[in-house]
Amino acid sequence: MSVFVLRRLAQTLLVLFVTSALVFGGLYLVGDPVEILVNPQADQEERARTAAALGLDRPVLEQYGMFLKGMFSGDLGKSFVFGRPALEVILERMPATLELAFLAMLMSVGLGIPLGLYAGLFPDRKTSKAIMAGSILGFSLPTFWVGLLLIMLFAVQLGWLPSTGRGPTENVFGLSISILSLEGLRYAFLPSLNLALFKLSLIIRLTRAGTREALLQDYVKFARAKGLSNARVVGVHVLKNIMIPIVTVIGLEFGSVIAFAIVTESIFAWPGMGKLIIDSINVLDRPVIVAYLLIIVSLFILINLTVDIVYSLLDPRVRIGEAKG
User: Fold this and answer.
1) How far is it, in rounded angstroms, from Cα 75 to Cα 70?
2) Which tens digit of pLDDT belongs to each residue from 90-147?
3) Nearest one of 292, 317, 221 to 24, comparing CA atoms
4) By CB neighbour count within 10 A (0-12 exposed, 13-18 middle, 19+ buried), where does 20 fall?
5) Nearest alpha-carbon partner for 196 in 118, 111, 278, 306
6) Helix, coil or strand: residue 78
7) What is the tens place of the pLDDT at every residue in 243-272?
8) How many Å apart are CA 207 and CA 228, to the nearest integer?
9) In the chain, where do the E strands start and end?
């Protein structure tokens, strides 16, 4: 296990290095942040001063070398817009995005597994067919359109829930958390639901397919032949064996929810990392963009590592050292 974790950490450093090089080079070719940050009426001398102050007057390789040097010491540069460390700016917004991701995955898993299990156990019932039809809609409808519909229905027409903003927050271990209060949950419900719909559909279909396949296996037939109750057969033999692919999807989709919450955060004006990265791209705030992507890559790698470890706990036949060696 320790050898596997060390090997994965070494791979992480390589991936981060390649990612930083690609993103840094791509942003350098896109445009000049000075043209956006300074007044259009500014003269050439003022533009040169701004470029020098931001370190943009140096060759790109020198800029990248300074970035790498700072990265290994935890300094990802200062935001051109905020004038503060880019990592600090992103970490301020991270709790808001993690709240949405957590609630979205909680909805997806809490509803997706039971609904998919039901649809797999009773495929011919009308309820099961309705569940599967709903999952197709969840796959098909675009996120931005569903978000607008949710706002129109629950915020504008019914007036039950707020349409934008994050709501009141509480300080917990230095982090601003909003979902610990009922009012905070009211603000977070619609954007979380919007994020959850696609993941919910995916988990429903995956659970149903796994259940249908597991019911045909010999170990299930043998369990029934021993006289075990249906609840025990489903809860112990079926559910446990279909959880490995589901855990994989849950892990990867949790990472994708964090990375691709941009549309939802923009629609609901949720002050998370997604909205920050959109604003940063508009002004070519290179340090914030690069730092954001490095954090997202690190989260994906950490989630994959966690999923691999959970594999070995769910199924003792899986040996991490052998499977990854």
Assistant:
1) 5
2) 888 888 888 888 999 999 999 999 999 899 888 889 999 999 998 888 888 888 888 8
3) 292
4) buried
5) 111
6) strand
7) 877 877 887 788 788 877 888 888 888 888
8) 22
9) 170-172, 175-177
Which stretches within 233-324 are classed as H helix?
239-259, 262-267, 273-282, 286-314, 320-323
Q: What spatial distance separates the first Cα and last Cα of the chain, rounded to whole Å? A: 11
Q: What residues have CB less than 8 Å from 103, skipping those under 6 apart?
A: 179, 188, 189, 192, 196
Q: If we measure between CA atoms, which residue out of 34, 190, 203 comes closest to residue 114?
A: 203
Note whether 318 and 311 are within 8 A (CB): yes
Q: Half-sphere exposure of residue 286, counting CA atoms within 13 Å on the CB side?
A: 25
Tokens read off for 38: 């300074």
pTM above 0.90, yes or no: no
* DSSP conformation class of 298: H
Structure tokens at 300: 């994906």
